[in-house]
Amino acid sequence: MIDYVTRPEARPPLYNDVVMLSKSIEAYDLSITQHSMTMVQMAERLAERLGCLPTEIKTIGLAALLHDLGKVGVPTVILQKPGSLSPEEWVLMRRHPEIGAQIVQTVTGLSGVATIIQCHHENFDGSGYPHGLRGCQIPLGARILAVVDAFEAITSGRVYRPPRSPEAALQEIQRCAGTQFDPQIVEAFVALIHEEGFNANQGE
Question: What's the pLDDT tens digit per position in 186-198?
Answer without folding.
Answer: 999 999 999 987 6
